[in-house]
Fold this protein.
Amino acid sequence: MTAVDAPCPDVRLTRPVRTPSTPIRVGLLGLGHVGSAVARLARTRPPAARANIEIAAALVRDPLRIRAVQDVPLTTDPDAVFLARPAVVVEALGGLEPARTLVLEAIARGLPVVTANKSLLAHHGDEIAEAAALAGVAVRYEASVIAGVPFLGTFARRPYASAVSAITAIVNGTSNFVLSRMQDLAVEFGSALSDAQRRGFAEPDPFKDVEGVDAAEKLAILIRLFAGRRVAPSDIETTGIRPVTPVDLRLARELGGTLKPVVTAEGLTSTTGPIGAFAGSAFVPGTHSLARVHYVSNGICLRAAGGSELCFTGPGAGPDVTAVTVLDDVLDAATGRAESWASAATGSLAVPPNTTWFVRVTSAVPQPSSADIATLLAAHGVWTERSAGPDTRDGRPSLALLVRSCSRPRIERAASALAAATGSSVHAYRALEAGS
Ligand SMILES: NC(=O)c1ccc[n+]([C@@H]2O[C@H](COP(=O)([O-])OP(=O)(O)OC[C@H]3O[C@@H](n4cnc5c(N)ncnc54)[C@H](OP(=O)(O)O)[C@@H]3O)[C@@H](O)[C@H]2O)c1
């Protein structure tokens, strides 16, 4: 590999004039999983591409590391990337810094930016949008949410179609893998997570994935696109998947569904009302499209203009599929297509409106009957539709109930009262409607 730590000989700050036969030069910030896949794929040119893509330079931490791609000029100096005359900068560093500083630097130099970094957009989106608007350059971000399914750009350029009132989605492949594995092999959370780590589907530190932080960041990006409003990921009700047990999954199956790591947002077309948003494990009825999205796959269902339901499913991540999406963004950005990460008004968030709930009750023997539990819940205004169990396979009897739509405070009050009256442990998960 060629090191380009020394300043480039023909240092020019202006962008090169491009003719149709001139390759599009890309400055890569990061040559890890995604950056390497981008560099590999850039050597190919699909029939519909209007130009070749050439990697001008790649920023890395360690230029001596053996890399999967050869012949990419490496540097540890960000300036060397900007001075290598890129037409587009691809940010594939991850994290907040130095990604934020370097993206702003690229924009200030008039260079369009492509990024797959949802944390960066969820936390510094406003600053980046303002800088991009001021400089008149595009910031493309298709690969930041469900990287393998290019749907964001389609909606970004179709204002009527993007008048979506509600979103229900699975946007985190790690969590979906863990719950799918727990369901299929009847294993505990820890064992399924280790399996995901061994296969490279979970980071050594899986906190952001399993606690729902990554999903909340992606939901904030989706809310910005579809509602034109900015919300802080930390303000979204987020529960993660850690509480889910194999018993929960067995009982969910008995009730005709499963538990999945979902994000939901409602009230997106109202310009003033709060948006109800949630990221966490939820009961998904077997008839819902997301019930068939397993393992590392992702899916999104949109309640679209005209009342129709649109669902897209496919790979959520993986370097190769992400590179495809990133390079299409590069072609668009280089040829000046207008849609881009944009400014948004402040949005207020609310606890999602009333939903149905999946309530699991685990007791020391003797266990109250499902009829007794239903009566106790009814005393707090919570009405049982169906029940499943008892499941006694892990030594303690567990029951599950699907209850009618009510607010979170109401289900929490009823669950606490039930736990106190029966000495049971009670966990309530939101439940999706059967639609979609
Ligand atoms: N992996 C996926 O499937 C996927 C899918 C969708 C989106 N994304 C997003 O894509 C981004 C990149 O992910 P990744 O998996 O490719 O990460 P990665 O494998 O950790 O690669 C990060 C790259 O950035 C370089 N880097 C990091 N900090 C640096 C610094 N301070 N100075 C110079 N270079 C630095 C690293 O250099 P060294 O190589 O020298 O360490 C490495 O080449 C993240 O935002 C991620 O969320 C990833």
